[in-house]
Amino acid sequence: MSGHRMGRTNEDVRRELTAILRNVKDPRVASAMLSVVRVEVTNDLSYATVYVSAMEGKDAAFTAVEGLKSAHGYVRRELGSALKLRHVPELRFIADDSIEYGAELTKKLRGINSATE
Fold it and tell me: What is the pTM of this model?
């Protein structure tokens, strides 16, 4: 597939997964404020690696990933019905700490900014 089409597919899967995660009933997923950071779909659409981050930190993201692994069938079914793909990719969830890192970086920058004033 061309690079443009793969980028569009990655973004479509990310957008739909964000909407689907709001409806997952597992308490490990529902209690965490999750964000789908990035999705990487393989060229043959057989696998999709989903990077998930939580506002509460990496530990909450790890717990949410365990909940997402148990709700894998539901999430994949909903993704297939939303995207109308011929083949729905197998989902691999990975915990990411990018939201926590970004918040920490912003806090440091604000500290530097207030120190210079």
Answer: 0.81
